[in-house]
Amino acid sequence: MDRLLTLEVFRRVVECNGFSAAARDLGVSNAAVSKAVKDLEARLGVQLIVRTTRSLNLTDAGAAYYQQACAVLDALAEADEQVRAEATSPRGRLKVSAPMSMGLTTLSDALPDFCRQYPDILLDLHMSDEVLDLVNGGFDLAIRGGLLQDSSLKARKLLDLDRIVCAAPSYLEARGHPASPQDLSAHDALVFAGSDAPETWPLFSADGMQAVSVKPRLRINNSIALKAAAMQGLGLALLPNVYVREEIASGALVDAVPGWRGEAQALYAVYPEQREVSRKVRVFLDFLVEHFRTLQA
Q1: Closest CA to 56 of 22, 102, 100
Q2: Stretch (H or E) spanning 35
Q3: Each residue of 21-69: pLDDT tens digit?
Q4: Domain match, 258 and 169 both
Q5: Range of the domain at 124
Q6: Which one of 23, 191, 237, 242 is most buried, counting C-beta atoms within 10 A?
Q7: Is the pTM for the entire model greater than 0.70?
Q8: Is the distance from CB of 295 to CB of 193 less than 8 angstroms?
């Protein structure tokens, strides 16, 4: 007999206080119930039930095993119920890690739509520029840019990030427009302190690549704060296009070196492999892919 079915038989014998009553409850023969318990005791090498003509009592080992068997069967029943519930409507807590700037801009604008679409999912967003341990931190998913170092995680590409050298019109009017990337070295630079080499800007065009050394006027480890400083006319900033699309379109910021872009970087959704089976993770992945697709349109 299947081990889980054997556990269920044992449980019913205890709770029905008899082999015959358990057999009637399960819809099987008395002999089948008796054999299941006998086989279980033989496999464990210990007596679980003391049976007389008038009573049924658990041994100490039987009482302990009964509690453990109930815990296993109840956990399995709960897991089955959760899967059945998710089949109709994904639900539960979804813990997500995202970079601070991304969380404050493109994600914060989009997430209310996700919450309205899936009201039974509790979205728990943690915004941090630190690379967190997803498994030990209990995260279902993280949004990360750059090269992926952890091969134990699965990844789904969301976006190719371009970087644009931006400046406010007032700054360019006062300091002049750079004619080439090398001219940037004579300008005030607003640099991202979280970069491996914040004072070197590799720029690319159809003609090749130039690595430009810039003179920092301000160092900040947050792209949104850099954008704010650039809009105040403090200097030039190399910023991801998704953070400055609206400002470039409105003219609040200007592409200071047209035709040249910073090193491209991909943005990914990463998640532990075991989370892939969760429907709440799958629907959130699909939502992210569609959201970032519209940003590239």
Answers
A1: 22
A2: helix 30-44
A3: 888 888 899 999 999 999 988 998 999 998 877 778 899 998 999 989 8
A4: yes
A5: 92-160+266-296
A6: 237
A7: no
A8: no
